[in-house]
Amino acid sequence: MADTDTTSYVMGSSPEESDRLGVQASLYDGHTEHLLRAAGLREGMRVLDVGCGTGEVSLAAARVVGSSGRVLGVDMDPGVLRRARANAAAGSFTNVTFEQGVLPDLEVGGSFDALVGRLILIHLDDPVSTVKDLTRFVRRGGVVTFQDFNISRTRAVPAVPLVTETVEWISAALREGGRNPEMGEQLAEVLRLSGLPDPSVAAAAPAGGPDSAAVTLIAESARSLLPVMERGGIATAEEVNIDTLRERMARACQEVRATVYVPELVAAWAPVP
Ligand SMILES: C[S@@+](CC[C@H](N)C(=O)[O-])C[C@H]1O[C@@H](n2cnc3c(N)ncnc32)[C@H](O)[C@@H]1O
Question: Measuring from atom 26 of ligand 1, which residue has the nearest CA?
């Protein structure tokens, strides 16, 4: 088994981060499944999901490929893989397995019809060379598709200063951690540079009311990134006041009956030539 360095993951490795992935999944999974189908995933396909986290993308792919297909989810963090296996068992999925593996030096057996990954390229130091390398697992004519966020599209309408400020903290913390908060709009170019010409692109943006999972996701993202914010001098623990942040945001949104848009999810896809 490869060495596992979960400390390089800017969002950290904690039960709270696993919970945050669950909230994120509840907001995005319908969109993700739609975008996987748009990318060309079909019944019977063999799919590799890299950076699978708690498994929701793998399970979305498993619903698309059905019982005649199969999905392998890979992640470096044994904690999220435990949750992924429990999620698959709870949903009685028989066509999904999960393995520990660390990008960029992944080794998996077999060949796949599709390579997928959501919110993983943002966390890699060299997404282009990683995608180029991972493409060797996909047969010619198979599909490569990745999904990632544009964080700057997160907003309350009408604007709520605490939401605006929290989104700015999150973006700054990601940049501080060496990550591009607008990775979504880079995906098409990453695929082109990886040798996958003419990618297709689409985007989706979930939203919710003042006291919805959308507000929870913004607050919990700030929680996971708080150590980076403090280290980088972006915001102090007192300013963020993480244990009351969600409630303060919800109250402020309620006052102006705001709709809260979470980050736009972009998908890009292309066939393997
Ligand atoms: C933001 S989460 C996304 C999880 C899942 N794809 C989803 O959309 O719900 C990123 C995941 O990538 C994993 N990860 C980050 N860097 C990785 C690497 N170098 N190799 C393997 N997994 C990695 C993390 O452990 C985490 O579970």
Answer: 53
CA of 216 to the centre of ligand 1 (A): 20
Condensed to tens digits (0 to 9), the pLDDT of residues 111-154 reads 999 999 999 999 999 999 999 999 999 999 999 999 999 999 99
Query: Omega into 104 within 30° of 0, i.e. cis?
Result: yes
Say if ligand 1 is within 6 A of residue 17 CB. Answer: no
- Cβ–ligand 1 contact at 116 (below 6 Å): no
* Whole-number pLDDT of residue 8: 65
233: left (phi over 0), alpha (psi -120 to 50) or beta: left
Sheet containing 264-271: give its strands across: 96-100, 70-75, 46-50, 112-118, 138-150, 264-271, 200-204
Q: What distance lies between CA 196 and its chain's CA centroid?
A: 21
Return the domain boundaries, the chain: 6-271
Q: Each residue of 179-203: pLDDT tens digit? A: 999 999 999 999 999 999 999 999 9
For residue 202, give both structure tokens: 């689409």
Q: Is the CB of residue 114 below 6 angstroms from any atom belonging to ligand 1?
A: no
Please list, residue by residue across 58-94, b when 16 or more beta carbons sit within 10 angstroms of its beta carbon and e when fewer do: bbbbbbbbeeebbbbbbbbbeebbebbbebbeeeebe
Q: Is the shortest distance between the CB of 170 and ligand 1 below 6 Å?
A: no
Q: pTM of the prediction?
A: 0.91
Q: Is 125 exposed, middle or buried (0-12, 13-18, 19+ CB in 10 A)?
A: exposed
CATH class for the domain made up of 6-271: alpha beta
pLDDT of residue 7 exceeding 60, the answer is: no
